Each structure stands twice: as structure tokens, then as C-alpha cells.
């Protein structure tokens, strides 16, 4: 049986965290820094009040959901796959590893 603290944490994650995570990949990039700070402050306050045991961070959550969406969209069966650029066949010199084999779109120079 779960303790009261664990039950409260489960409810917090189910209600509050699910509201923040809903379509975060779609709206997370448009959030101002002031609003990110307010969301992070509410996460810190929830941890301080023992509503949750994990200290959440808006930027970390956004990075996680974006990474998962990109990983899923690389599948041929994903609905966003057709929007990815063509895979790169050439082995050009790169400054750092990109983590994917897609060509980076270039502007008309």
C-alpha cells in the first residue's frame, strides 16, 4: 500500500504535470523566460510543500519531450516523418556530431 506522500505525488503528477506536458512540444518554444521562471517557481514550491518528490524544471521537460518526439518521428510509420529533410549520404566534415543523419536545411545564399 502506498503512503500518503506517495499518493499525493501520484495525484500531483497526474493533474499538474500532465497539464504542463500536454502538447509541450507545440507550445514550449513560445514561452517567455518570465513565464518559464514562474512555472519553475511553482515546481519548486510543490517540492517544498512535499506535493512531489521530484524537482521538475521546465527546460528539462521541454528537452525530454522534444527528444522523444524527434526519436519517434524518425520512424517511417510516424505521421511527421515526411516533414524531415532527406537523409545525408555524403560524409562531409562536421564540427560536432549532430545525433542524426539528416541534411540541415540551408537558406538561399
Rounded to an integer in angstroms, the radius of gyration calculated over CA atoms is 19 Å
Uncertain residue ranges: none
> How many individual β-strands?
0
Distance between the termini: 64 Å
Shape: elongated
- How many DSSP helices? 4
**How much helix is in the residues?**
40-55%
Average pLDDT reading: 83
Count of individual domains: 1
The fraction of residues in strands falls at under 5%
Q: How would you sum up the major sheet? A: none
SS-based class: mainly alpha
SSE succession: HHHH
Quick gist of this model?
This protein is mostly helical. It has one domain (4-83).
General description of the model:
With 109 residues, the chain is mainly alpha-helical. It has one domain (4-83). The protein contains four helices and no strands. It has helices at 4-21, 24-27, 33-48, 58-73. The termini are far apart. The mean pLDDT is 83.
Features:
single chain; 109 residues; mainly alpha; 0% strand; elongated
SSE topology:
Elements: H1 4-21, H2 24-27, H3 33-48, H4 58-73
Amino acid at each position: 500500500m502506498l503512503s500518503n506522500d506517495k499518493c499525493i505525488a501520484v495525484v500531483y503528477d497526474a493533474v499538474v504535470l500532465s497539464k504542463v506536458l500536454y502538447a509541450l512540444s507545440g507550445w514550449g518554444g513560445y514561452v517567455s523566460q518570465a513565464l518559464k521562471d514562474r512555472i519553475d517557481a511553482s515546481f519548486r514550491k510543490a517540492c517544498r510543500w512535499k506535493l512531489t518528490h521530484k524537482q521538475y524544471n521546465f527546460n528539462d521537460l521541454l528537452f525530454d519531450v522534444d527528444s522523444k518526439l524527434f526519436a519517434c518521428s524518425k520512424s517511417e510509420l510516424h505521421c511527421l516523418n515526411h516533414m524531415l529533410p532527406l537523409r545525408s549520404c555524403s560524409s562531409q566534415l562536421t564540427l560536432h556530431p549532430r545525433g542524426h543523419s539528416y541534411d540541415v536545411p540551408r537558406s538561399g545564399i
